[in-house]
Design a protein that fits this description.
single chain, 0% helix, 128 residues, mainly beta, 9 strands
Length: 128
């Protein structure tokens, strides 16, 4: 059976990987690796639609009682996972996992006193 081996670039005590499972490899989207300060991510693009998925390394659960605030693609959040879907370059959908706020400039999409899972689409935010 063919298989893939994932090999880190060097020795490290902790290593994070982002994995994409393609159910139809013949019609695979374009996937780009993204990096930011204390974050890793991917941009998945097909046609005019793209989704950036970010893993906030400050909020991944390893460090307790520490500030997990980070700026991911211009969005300020303390979420562990942030996904922003854009169509023709305009953000249209947001997903925030285990976060208490999500904002960009004066635009505030999620504001909670506790960590929540939230989806913002069609002008409204749903909190889980």
């Amino acid at each position: 059976m063919p298989y893939y081996a994932i090999v880190p670039p060097g020795e490290a005590r902790v290593m994070k990987f982002v994995t994409a499972i393609l159910l139809n490899p013949g019609d695979a989207p374009e996937i780009e690796r993204l990096e930011a300060v204390n974050a890793i991510g991917v941009r998945i693009t097909r046609g005019t639609k793209s989704t950036e998925v970010w893993l906030n390394l400050l909020a991944d659960g390893r460090m307790r009682h520490r500030n997990s605030n980070n700026t991911l693609a211009g969005w300020d959040t303390d979420a562990c996972l942030l996904a922003v879907t854009s169509e023709n370059g305009k953000p249209v959908r947001f997903f925030c996992a285990n976060g208490s706020y999500l904002r960009k400039g004066d635009e505030l999409l999620v504001d909670s006193l506790k960590k929540v899972f939230a989806v913002h689409a069609d002008g409204k935010t749903t909190i889980y």
